[in-house]
Amino acid sequence: MRRRLRVRVARAGSATIPSMRRRLLIAVSLVLTVALSVGLFNRAAAPVVDQGGVAVWFSPDGGCADAVIDAVRSSNKTLEIAAYHITHAGIAKAIVDANRRRVSVRVVMDASQAQSKYSSATFLHNAGVHVMIWQGALMHHKFVIVDGKQLITGSFNFTKAADESNAENLLIIRDKPRVIAAYRQQFSRLVQKSRRYTPPKTDGPE
To answer: Is residue 97 among the annotated active site residues?
Structure first.
């Protein structure tokens, strides 16, 4: 009897090991899935220099786009964006995701974005983002103000080509309230001279 009991206990113990392994693997896979979905492993490359509240990146392949994405993801209250256009998929997704997190997102874009049947303005608009079109001449700004405390600026266009091919620069400025206030004032001027984006009407069937 004792031998049979020992055998049964041994079998039961050995049976629980694969079960525990399966549970552990499931738990690890769930953690990895969540981490990847929120971008925990998509950290930006370190800046070339980070001094006195100013961090600098260069492209191509210097981590500019990832730095922008990380900054946008860090937003909690507001995003004020002035950009000629936004065609980098990761940056556009980060903006849309911020809007879904109930961050107040406003984007001012160049008039050319209202002339195409489908543009980056259309994409953002369809995702519920508040998009405005500049009514002056060329709107060639490239800056983002995050929560009124962090400024992204530089020559870097929010495009894949700027990140992977072009020679560009990107600065992220923190702890410079007067500098950021000046950019916020400029953004307000842009808003005043812009109109709400509406997608172009498409021709219906004849």
So the answer is: no
Active site residue 130: no
SS (HEC) of the chain? CHHHHHHHHHHHHHHHHHHHHHHHHHHHHHHHHHHHHCCCCCCCCCCCEEECCEEEEEECCCCHHHHHHHHHHCCCCEEEEEECCECCHHHHHHHHHHHHCCCEEEEEECHHHHCCCCCHHHHHHHCCCEEEEECCCCCCCEEEEECCCEEEEECCCECHHHHHCCCEEEEEEECCHHHHHHHHHHHHHHHHCEEECCCCCCCCCC
Which of these is catalytic: 70, 147, 149, 160?
147
pTM, entire model: 0.78
Predicted confidence pLDDT, tens digits, the chain (206 residues): 555 545 454 555 555 655 655 665 555 445 334 343 444 444 568 999 999 999 999 999 899 999 999 999 999 999 999 999 999 999 999 999 999 999 999 999 999 999 888 999 999 999 999 999 999 999 999 999 999 999 999 999 999 999 999 999 999 999 999 999 999 999 999 999 999 999 987 665 54
140 is catalytic: yes
